[in-house]
Each structure stands twice: as structure tokens, then as C-alpha cells.
Design a protein that fits this description.
By secondary structure, the protein is an alpha+beta fold. It has one domain: 4'-phosphopantetheinyl transferase domain (Ribosomal Protein L22, Chain A, Alpha-Beta Complex). Helices cover about 40% and strands about 30% of the residues. It is built from 5 helices and 5 strands, in the order E-H-H-H-H-E-E-H-E-E. It has a 3-stranded antiparallel beta sheet with strand order 1-5-4. A hairpin with a 5-residue loop joins strand 2 and strand 3. Helix 1 crosses helix 4. The N and C termini lie close together (about 5 Å). About 30% of the residues are buried. The model has no long low-confidence stretch (mean pLDDT about 95).
């Protein structure tokens, strides 16, 4: 059963402007510690990397029905890739517990990302068992 669906589309030029003005302050506000660790290994800053995380986290917050507020904060949501390169969402423990409580046991969180520069699109489905 579907608990929530969220989508977000962002113009990467908008993210580039924010990054140009705010730099590391913006990056540290947007990225989880795990994402930031990867960000630091990049030889050049990737606006596309930031735009995808922005869109995915916004889409997740919409699927939760809350937007970015309360426990649902950018830094508590990690957008990672599995060994095949498929994106997935990892939540901080307290956010994961909150979502499980809301859904009466979460069955899964599904993420799809796409980009056709300058546009980035994210789509999230949150499933619950009952």
C-alpha cells in the first residue's frame, strides 16, 4: 500500500547560483555527513551532484507529507548508490523510526532520479505494509 508519493524538479542553474553565493555553508546544510564525505573526494565541485540531492530530499519530504521541517531535514536524509549505481535513500535512525511509526511499519522507500540538464527530476514512493 502506498503511504506517499513525492516529486521535485529543480533547475541546476538555481543550485549553481546558491552554491556560488553560499559555498560550503550551503553544501554543509544540504548534505548528510556521508554525502559530504563523498563530496570532499571530488576533484571539482559537482553542481549536478548537489541538484540531485536537493531534488531527491524535497521529493522525499513531499512523500512524507511534511515538507522540510521537524525531523525531516536535509542533513538527516542521505542519497546514496548501490553497487550497480541505483540510487537509494538512507535515513538517520530517528527519522527512520518516525517514518515507521507514521506508516505502521514501512515496507520501502523507492527513489528514481533523472537529469536532462539543466533539469533534475526526483520521484519518491513510500510504501507501508498495511
Amino acid at each position: 500500500m502506498i503511504y506517499g508519493i513525492g516529486t521535485d524538479m529543480v533547475d541546476s542553474r538555481r543550485i549553481e547560483k546558491i552554491f556560488s553565493r553560499r559555498g560550503e555553508i550551503f553544501v554543509k546544510k544540504l548534505l548528510s555527513p556521508e554525502e559530504y564525505q563523498y563530496w570532499q573526494t571530488l576533484s571539482t565541485p559537482s553542481v549536478n551532484y548537489l541538484a540531485k540531492r536537493w531534488a531527491a530530499k524535497e521529493a522525499f519530504s513531499k512523500a512524507c507529507g511534511t515538507g522540510i521541517q521537524g525531523l525531516v531535514q536535509f542533513k538527516r536524509i542521505s542519497i546514496l548508490k548501490d553497487v550497480r549505481g541505483k540510487p537509494f535513500i538512507r535515513l538517520e535512525r530517528d527519522l527512520e523510526d518516525w517514518l515507521t511509526e507514521q506508516c505502521q511499519e514501512t515496507a520501502g522507500v523507492h527513489l528514481s532520479l533523472s537529469d536532462e540538464l539543466p533539469w533534475v527530476l526526483a520521484f519518491v514512493i513510500i510504501e507501508k505494509n498495511k
